[in-house]
Amino acid sequence: MTQPATFTTLILFSLLSSLSANGQQLTDAEYEEKGKYIWEHFVPQSGQAKFVQGELLRAIEKLRDEAQRNGNGNFNNQCHSLLVNYLRSKLTDTTLFSEEKIQGINAELDLLNNAQAPYTHDAPYDYITNRIIDWFMYYGETLEHNPNPKLKC
Hints:
Helices cover 57% and strands 0% of the residues. The protein is mostly helical. Helix 3 (52-70) runs antiparallel to helix 6 (123-139). The longest helix is centred in the middle third of the chain and has 19 residues, at 52-70. The radius of gyration is 14 Å and the shape is globular.
């Protein structure tokens, strides 16, 4: 079992997250702008997204909402655990991210994948959101998401 990320580790990940996958320095404002673009153009009002970047952003925001609004009271294996697995499957891409960055992604996802201990601080959600934006910048807008029929949220 992976230990939860320490405060120092979270700070380190936050500092490192300002570099996109291709090494380009992005500002917080640029990440926010790109995140809004994905949200507005690729995240549906309900149901799974048609494109991967929309489903990735939908997934992390569903996890954030469940922890921050509900204290993980409705966290379940047919929704939230599947969302974490989906995020992990796309964001641990060795063609895009370094091993160090992948370790950070896995540490943050492990922190968020705990029904009994909701993580309510924004830092890990923002870190994963920035990795989603890095993914989007690398792969673009055209990769279609294959809906998961087992996903119940």
